[in-house]
Amino acid sequence: MQRERITITIPKKLLEALDGTVDGSGVRNRSHAVELALAKTLLKKPVKALILAGGNQIRLPQLHREIPKAMLPVQGRPILEHILLRLKTAGVDEVIASIGSGGGKIQDYFRNGSRFGVSISYLEQAQIKKGTAQPIAQAQSRLMDAPFLLVYGDVLADIDFADFLAFHESQKNSLATMALASVQKVSMWGVARLVGSKVAEFEEKPKHPGTQSHLVNAGMYVMDPKIFEYLAPDMTKLESELLPRLAEENRLGGYSFGGNWYDVSTPQAYEQVLKEWRGL
Question: Domains in the chain, please, with CATH?
Answer without folding.
Answer: 39-276 (3.90.550.10)
